[in-house]
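Slide 14.
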Amino acid sequence: MKKQPKDLLFHASASSGKANPSLLRVILGSQTTRLDFGYAASSYYIKGGWITISPDTFLQVKGDSTPYLLKEAIGISQAPVKLKFKSTKDYQFFSLHFEPLPQKDLVFDMIEKLNGTPNDFNYYGIEIKLKNGVVVLV
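Slide 15: predicted structure.
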């Protein structure tokens, strides 16, 4: 009998080089790879600004040129639409669902825009070690 893949949750420790948004966790599933984020509105803008994600965002495993494409964004608008904050005290949690990554030890990047600016949500060196995963009961 073939072993069924399990959904595994990992607490994230990768950074885009700035505080916002924070990558909170990664869930490696058999159907999707889910990245959960938290974003706090900026005090730089009077009403906190806005956020959006490019529909062209993808994941890429180190050493493999295969892009794992964005399938769904929950809690954040996809460009060109923007999710606008109402105040500098607002925050937003959102999830990005991608094509499933292999369930093995790996390091991957999330790329919103190749050679992007600091305003793009690019995350590098997200490390997954299967021994650190927690099985998610569905």
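Speaker note: The mean pLDDT is 87.
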